[in-house]
Amino acid sequence: MKIAFISEDGVTISQHFGQAPYYLVLTIEDGKVISKEKRDKMSHRNFASEQHTEAECCERHGYGANAQTKHADMMSNIADCQVLIAGRMGWGAYEELKSRAIKTIITDVKNIDEAVRLYLKGELPNLIERLH
After folding, report:
1. If DSSP codes are grouped into helix, strand and coil, which group holds residue 52?
2. Where in the sequence is the domain holding 12, given as residue range(s)?
3. Which of 99, 38, 92 has its CA nearest to residue 65?
């Protein structure tokens, strides 16, 4: 199994899917981490020249013009992952991950190692209310 974490430093889980600069992908076998790999991730910085609409800023996030294409670009490097763990994200990204059969967990646990431990025990909190 492969679990992708959004991160800025490889140690903590980023608080926003769209802003994280990379993924830390962990390969799990027999309940143990056997490898860690840093993968680049498209982020809002890559789309900086594009304006957000009022609807994107103030309602459910991630449904504006070209959102599906942006999300596809952001997710292209984790097509082989079964799980993504993030601190927060917009509904559009969440639903795109779901359509790709990538289980998405939104959590308030900040440390990646702790989140892996909890996930493997079935105890990682999944806080859907953190979606925006």
Report:
1. coil
2. 2-130
3. 92
In order of 62, 102, 111, 120, the CA distances from 117 in angstroms are: 30, 19, 10, 5
From first to last of the 132 residues of the chain, give the pLDDT tens digit: 999 999 999 999 999 898 899 999 999 999 999 999 999 998 755 444 444 444 444 455 455 556 567 768 788 999 999 999 999 999 989 999 999 999 999 999 999 999 999 999 999 999 999 998
Q: Looking at the 3D structure of the chain, how many domains does it have? A: 1
CATH number at residue 65: 3.30.420.130
Task: Look up residue 105 and give its amino acid.
Answer: I
Tell how strand 2-7 and strand 83-86 pair up.
parallel
